[in-house]
Fold this protein.
Amino acid sequence: EAGVVQSPRYKIIEKKQPVAFWCNPISGHNTLYWYLQNLGQGPELLIRYENEEAVDDSQLPKDRFSAERLKGVDSTLKIQPAELGDSAVYLCASSLVAGAGEQFFGPGTRLTVL
Amino acid sequence: KQEVTQIPAALSVPEGENLVLNCSFTDSAIYNLQWFRQDPGKGLTSLLLIQSSQREQTSGRLNASLDKSSGRSTLYIAASQPGDSATYLCAVRGNTPLVFGKGTRLSVIA
């Protein structure tokens, strides 16, 4: 069974440029999460989807960040425009059971903003 | 607000030693607690999930315990190996989204 797939694995951009990350969850997992992980810290939730609905986006900086999961399967997280402080690892996770189910993580996308 | 603390922040042990990693959380009203492993530059690998009604879970050389009332969990690694070297993260799920600790960076020296 394939795990959570993320692309790209690495991205280097100039500040003020846009960037997008893609995630494909484990097949059959209706819940999808996007996390931000800074160096030396644990991941922090940005947004959680139940199917195509964003049910928790309170930590998503909506002035520059956006996300979508149009068909309730794969998802895209976008930053526009990127700032130096956005340099981090962006992790996607999925779970079979909503809410308190075990979460499985992808390899992440390491973003560097110059 | 739930806060998760992991002690120690880093640990170095000789191969073959048994070791314990600690995780504490401030709000005992949790649904479950999950232990993860993270290798450098990689994502998180789920090791063990303990539901709030459980006291412990075991997988191979790993054993995780949960004392919800005192807000503590431990991850016991038996007969450590160099391949166990990684950062270990615990995370708790309650009414808030999954809240992570900062992790314990483990080095097992051959």
About this structure: Chain A touches chain B through 24 residues (CB under 8 Å). The CA atoms of residues 15 and 83 of chain A lie 5 Å apart. The mean pLDDT of chain A is 93.
